[in-house]
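Lab notebook, bench 4. The sequencing result for the construct came back, and we need a structural model before the next group meeting so we can plan mutations. Quick request posted to the team channel:

Model the 3D structure of this chain.
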Amino acid sequence: LAEVWRAAGVVPAAVMGHSQGEIAAACVAGGLSLEDGARVVALRSRAIVELSGLGGMASVGEPVEKVEARLSKWEGRLSVAAVNGPSSVVVSG
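Done. Here's the predicted structure in C-alpha cell form:
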C-alpha cells in the first residue's frame, strides 16, 4: 500500500505500526526488505502458535469498559489483551 501512495506522489515523513504493523512500518521505512519483513511475519506467526497453546485471541468492536464487564464471569480465563481504539479491543484466553 505504501508503494501505491508513493506512486501517487505521497511520501511518508514517518511511519509506525502496532504488532504486525511494526513489521510493515519497518519495511516502509527501509529498515527491512519486503522479503525480510515477510520472513519475520512468518516466524512470528509460528512462534505465536507455539506459545499460545490452546488459547486464542479475538477482536471485539466495543469499548473496553463494556468488554471487561462481559468478561468478569470468566475471570482468570479470559482477559483484555489490547485496547486498539475507543471501540476496538482484543480479548485473549
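The mean pLDDT is 92.
Will bring this to the meeting.
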